[in-house]
Amino acid sequence: MNNYKNLLSPFTFPVSGIEVTNRAVMAPMTTFSGNNDGTTNDAEVAYYRKRNESAGLLITACAYVEKQGKGFHGQIGADTDALIPSLKRIAAALKEKGGKAVLQIYHGGRMSPPEELPDMQTVSASAVPAERPGSQVPREMTQQEIENTIQAYGEATRRAIAAGFDGVEIHGANTYLLQQFFSPHSNRRSDRWGGNVTQRMAFPLAVVDAVKQAVALAGRPFLVGYRISPEELENPGITMEDTLLFVDALSKKELDYLHVSVMDFWAGSIRDKADTASRATLISAKVGARVPIIGVGGIHTPADAVKVLETGIQLVAMGRELLMEPLWIKKVTENAVDQIETELDTNAQEFLSIPAPLWHGLISRTGWIPLKK
């Protein structure tokens, strides 16, 4: 167990003062398993309850803040007060064993499936489609829509607080709306919401402000994190230079953490193969003394997690590992690392409490998760 002292040490988030008992984080993973009206159901709640001993900090699948931003079939919502009882079910299930529960809040922008939207029309910073086959040309958001969406993030935060969550994670990564406003590919605006790199920060920073305002009214400690993708392949696209300016601005917003979304923690630039420095460690070097960093990507074993923590990164997130092993951090704590499951048993869906839509996706997605048949 001594080999995992850093991983098992508690951590106190500097702004909220909330403490977690260890440095492991359950990464947000889309379940595709909610109801059509944005509510959760027994199968999804059981999935979360099964994993409430997998890590100290537990982040949900993303919840849309507006129906116009719904990004997946079976996605939960946080866009109306009628959904607070549903959100309460998830928060309660995650917190039963002492973990801290965070609701990830989200808007899909131009990446939303049109068929999931009220008017079947995606929206974004500008009328520029994603560089993916069959992508719809989004409608450029009006000034009023932008202001309404900023407010929607604040309202979703208020609902997360009412539902008993310990925090929210603002999903500003993975090509979704907040990233679309920051990106020179998807944001070609000439008003206050677009232009140079500083102007393209305006929308995501306004969202952070709205979330923080909701938290200020809560009267209790509450985490606010932000998830970011460091680069884009598109040209023009987000560069590491852009991102270092952006995280500097984010670090001044008194966030509890930045969650750096990459496929491989140790990988270098996706834009410049000659640049081999880890994106997360570059961000940590820039702002890690001011805002804690969550590292993610290719962290499979406790030894992998310790290696990441040794870089100065404060927390480590895992996704597929906690699908296969719901007791991941519990087994590390009990010095039973050799008992951690490293393959998904294809006969164990019921035991693992994985809802059918997610299960079928895992089994059919060759190579993403190791299978034991």
Can you put this structure into words, describing what you see?
- The chain has 373 residues and is an alpha/beta fold.
- The chain has a single domain (2-335), classed as TIM Barrel (Alpha-Beta Barrel), CATH 3.20.20.
- It has 14 helices and 15 strands.
- It has an eight-stranded parallel beta barrel, surrounded by six helices. A two-stranded antiparallel ribbon has the order 1-2. A two-stranded parallel ribbon has the order 7-8.
- It is globular, with a radius of gyration of 19 Å.
- The chain starts with a helix and ends with a strand.
- The mean pLDDT is 97.
Brief summary:
33% of the residues lie in helices and 14% in strands. It has 373 residues and is α/β, with parallel strands linked by helices.
Helix-strand blueprint:
Elements: H1 5-8, E1 11-12, E2 19-20, E3 24-26, H2 42-50, E4 57-59, E5 63-64, H3 84-95, E6 100-106, E7 123-124, E8 139-140, H4 143-162, E9 167-172, H5 177-182, H6 197-200, H7 202-216, E10 223-228, H8 240-251, E11 257-260, H9 279-287, E12 293-296, H10 302-309, E13 315-318, H11 320-324, H12 328-333, E14 344-345, H13 349-352, H14 356-364, E15 371-372
Parallel strand pairs: 3-4, 3-13, 4-6, 5-6, 6-9, 7-8, 9-10, 10-11, 11-12, 12-13, 14-15
Antiparallel strand pairs: 1-2
Helix pairs in contact: 2-3, 4-7, 8-9
